[in-house]
Amino acid sequence: MLLGLLASACTTGDLGRPRPTVWSQVIxxxxxxxAATARGEAASYFRITDDEEQLRxxxxxxxxxxxxxxxxQREVSNxxxxxxxxxxxxxxxxxxxxxxxxxxxxxxxxxxxSRLAEDTNADRLLIGPFRANAMRVVAADRVRMxxxxxxxxxxxxxxxxxxxxxxxxxxxILWVCERVGFRIxxxxxxxxxxxxxxxxxxxxxxxxxIMALEAEAAPLCKLPxxxxxxxxxxxxxxxxx
Length: 241
Description:
By secondary structure, the protein is an all-alpha fold.
């Protein structure tokens, strides 16, 4: 049944995320809430705001594997996005993208370099909107926490879910920062191995695209967060293939 539900979510909606279905809107969120709670993770039953929903939609691209041919990894990451699986279940092998990039038939070596540059540029263009969205969510969470602490009208039973929502939001931002770092390392691995296997002048364009992505990603990992995970986003880690 689970496989069938996953298959039904393959149609693409806004920002690349699957279109809303009963699975994505009802079953998966409830299953994720229960699974996260069972693992001892913060989970809130509060309805999400418009900005929080958009943040999750924008995060989805970066959480997923960079290449669509990474079929198994995509399913794992999709389940992790709903919190049904823990984040640690995702692959940390930077060779995954290169495997997807070089699988199948291509007209020429230039097409592989072109696809690498296109994927890198697409990421770069989407980081700015995600960062702006994240800043709005963090600002709203600061208001949430001030209202929670300063109003006697808010019942005590809303304190834990309010804090849990702040933790969820901040955790998602940190997760995206980490996966963007993973993508950059994956792109660099792919470029190095393409040059070894199929040297081409197109490598210059791909290299410049990766450098531009790195420059755009740097401010994302320096956002001043509230501090539920220790404040500023951590510097992306370096992965091993």
